[in-house]
Amino acid sequence: MLIIVTYDVSTETAAGRRRLRRVAKVCESMGQRVQKSVFECQVNDIQYEALERALLAEIDEQQDNLRFYRITEPVEVRVKEYGVYRSVDFEGPLVV
């Protein structure tokens, strides 16, 4: 499944800046950054649950915001891209 993860971490304190870096690292380990605080992740149910648990462990729910969007199939009908950035086609062939 394709999910979109967005977050807004309060960076007013040093602890907040550390949380922001940790949240970004967790997201980078599971998906690709499409904007500063927005990631696309192609995951199965188990990976989704692990990602959600890992991110919830990092944020401060009193100061931060974390959102997950599940994009339903067919993705090509639900996602439109404009501009120069093109995301990775997770279903396409891998060329190294």
Compact summary:
One of its GO terms (molecular function) is RNA endonuclease activity. With 96 residues, the protein is of the alpha+beta class.
What does this structure look like?
The protein has 96 residues and is α+β, with helices and mostly antiparallel strands. The chain has a single domain (2-73), classed as 2-Layer Sandwich (Alpha-Beta Plaits), CATH 3.30.70.240. Helix content is 36%, strand content 24%. The protein has three helices and four strands. It has helices spanning 14-30, 45-58, 75-78; strands at residues 2-8, 32-35, 38-42, 65-71. It has a four-stranded antiparallel beta sheet, with helices on one face.
Coarse morphology: globular
The CATH architecture would be 2-Layer Sandwich
Which consecutive residue ranges, at least 5 long each, have pLDDT under 50? none
Q: What class would the helix/strand composition place it in?
A: alpha+beta
Major sheet details = 4 strands, antiparallel
Supply the number of helical segments: 3
As a percent range, the share of strand residues is 15-25%
Total discrete domains: 1
The value of Rg in angstroms is: 14 Å
The residue fraction in helices comes out at 25-40%
What is the class in the CATH system? Alpha Beta
Measure the end-to-end span: 24 Å
Mean pLDDT: 88
Strand ordering within the main sheet? 2-3-1-4
Oligomer: single chain
* H-E order: EHEEHEH
Number of strands: 4
CATH topology: Alpha-Beta Plaits
Subunit structure: Homodimer, forms a heterotetramer with a Cas1 homodimer.
Protein name: CRISPR-associated endoribonuclease Cas2
Cofactor: Mg(2+)
EC number: 3.1.-.-
